[in-house]
Amino acid sequence: MNLYDLFIKPYETYTSFQIFLEAFASVFGILSVYFSIKKNIWVYPTGIISTLIYVYILFNFGLLGDCMINVYYTVMSIYGWVLWAKNAEDHVHVEVTWASRKEWIYGSILFVLSLILVTTIYYYKPYIDNHFSMKGTDLGLYHLDWGNKLDIITTSIFLVGMWFMAKRRIENWVFWIIGDFICMPMMIYKGLGITSVQYLVFTILAILGYLNWKKSYKEKKVQ
Fold first, then answer.
1. For the whole model, what pTM was predicted?
2. Taking the CB of residue 24, how many other CB atoms lie within 10 A of it?
3. Which UniProt keywords apply (predicted)?
4. Of 186, 167, 183, 176, residue with least CA distance to 209
5. 199 neighbors 180 (Cβ within 8 angstroms)
6. Is a pLDDT exceeding 80 seen at residue 6?
């Protein structure tokens, strides 16, 4: 399989509007990560635009876990927006710290609960796909392909990462790096080439974000 088959061919069956939506959401997603690296509160309004569009896109592509994470992103973006606004002296930029042991425990619990929740949703996916009717529907996980299984894992990783980011914890970038890297082949498999490139950019930006926040924390500590 060549690059054309991976990135171009799937779009031959898409409408111009579908391609525009994915590209538009990707641009705003990248802008959101950029603002996050800069510890700039605009990470949230740009992120909300991207996540709402992806809710629509991912639902139509059957990635329920990722669809859910973008609903969660939207809610957490509002929560994070409020927290950052309260903790920003100039109402734009914030200070960052490392997570406490208690927060790591909460993050671990959130990860496990997410695995259970998303797995349960996939269990009922045949019922959802059948327009919420049990007629001729067999519940179970038999229908999962490797993309769906990865989706369950990445959803849980991103949930924790988003929570740590709202708390302004440096560790949030570790979760973004891992999740973004895993999502690249998953999106190619699902025929979302533009989004897979976006996740490649996300992975690079997340590494830069981790280094930037870590450096910022050290400089603030010296002061």
1. 0.81
2. 14
3. Cell membrane, Membrane, Transmembrane, Transmembrane helix, Transport
4. 176
5. yes
6. no
Token pair 């927006």 in the structure block, residue: 81
With b for 16 or more beta-carbon neighbours within 10 A and e for fewer, the 126-149 pattern comes to: beeeeeeeeeebeeeeeebeebbe
In this structure, are residues 190 and 61 in contact, taking their beta carbons and an 8 Å threshold? Answer: yes
The CA distance from 200 to 212, in Å, is 19
Structure tokens at 181: 């890297």
pLDDT tens digits for 171-214? 999 999 999 999 988 888 877 787 888 899 999 999 999 999 99
Say if residue 155 is exposed, middle or buried (CB neighbours under 10 Å; 0-12, 13-18, 19+).
Answer: buried
- In degrees, to the nearest 5, what angle opens at C-alpha 44 toward C-alphas 120 and 169? 75
| The two structure tokens encoding residue 78 | 């509002």
The 10 Å Cβ neighbour count of residue 87 is 13
Distance CA(18)–CA(53), nearest Å, equals 10
Q: Contact 191/10 with Cβ under 8 angstroms?
A: yes
Place of tokens 């010296």: 222
